[in-house]
Design a protein that fits this description.
- The complex is a heterodimer of chains A (78) and B (147).
- Helix content of chain A is 65%, strand content 0%.
- Chain A contains three helices and no strands.
- The radius of gyration of chain A is 18 Å and the shape is flat.
- Chain B has 147 residues and is mainly α.
- Chain B has one domain.
- In chain B, helix 3 packs antiparallel against helix 6.
- Chain B is elongated, with a radius of gyration of 19 Å.
- Classes of the chains: A mainly alpha (78), B mainly alpha (147).
Chain lengths: 78, 147
């Protein structure tokens, strides 16, 4: 409670040390919004493109995580 | 195999506006909705980074190379850095550590990098084809990427 009273948004850091990986989703969303806003010829299907790109980034990061896990724990862990 | 080539022009006014504020270059160019979306994405990332890691993630003195990337956001990043150094740098209680600091720094750095794409597009805009032309350009074998 003391921590909550002392907390000032945008000045103090959030206590996300145990769930920091959850920040990947809004990170991917922000990148997708800004990138697609520049790249798409028309904004008709903008949000659909944003959602697809967000999913691609998240799935790509999960895939890379699995790959690195396999390399370190399975191949070099033998 | 035929290739489509997009015409590129040089637009210094919209480019300077894009440097001044994320998305403003596209607003000046008459693409207000696109500029608003760029602002939403870039400022969402930048402010999201500060929200997660605190003002300590914008720190030219101690995290110089992070700040080089974050500076791509423009005067807003320099303003946040000035605010940090003048009002909060002496307070050790606001220092963020570990993963939270890394994630916050990464958010703000990616905001700067994505804004660089928007700045380049504002300085040298492609003349975007009309939707029917884009469909033709995006057909197989035409060389258009459509994204």
């Amino acid at each position: 409670m003391t921590w909550l009273l002392a907390y000032t948004p945008f000045v103090d850091p959030l206590d996300l040390h145990d769930v920091w990986w959850l920040t990947l989703a809004p990170l991917a969303l922000g990148i997708s919004i800004a990138y697609k806003a520049v790249r798409v010829p028309t904004l008709e299907e903008f949000w659909k493109g944003v959602l697809v790109m967000t999913a691609q980034i998240i799935m790509g990061m999960i895939g890379l995580g699995v790959l690195v896990y396999l390399v370190i724990e399975v191949f070099f862990g033998l | 195999m035929s290739h489509t080539q997009r015409e590129t022009t040089f637009a210094p006014i919209s480019g300077i506006a894009a440097v001044a504020l994320p998305g403003l270059g596209h607003v000046v160019r008459g693409e207000a909705k696109r500029g608003g979306l760029i602002f939403l994405g870039v400022m969402g990332l930048f402010l999201g980074g500060i929200l997660i890691g605190g003002i300590d993630v914008i720190d030219r003195a101690n995290d110089f190379w992070w700040f080089v990337l974050q500076a791509g956001v423009g005067p807003v990043a320099f303003g946040a850095e000035w605010l940090h150094q003048t009002r909060f740098a002496a307070d050790p209680a606001i220092q963020s550590l570990g993963k939270v600091n890394e994630v916050g720094s990464l958010y703000a750095a990616l905001a700067g990098l994505v804004n660089l794409i928007a700045i380049i597009d504002a300085f040298w805009p492609d003349v975007r084809p009309a939707p029917q032309d884009e469909r033709r350009a995006g057909s197989p074998g035409s060389g258009g990427d459509g994204s």
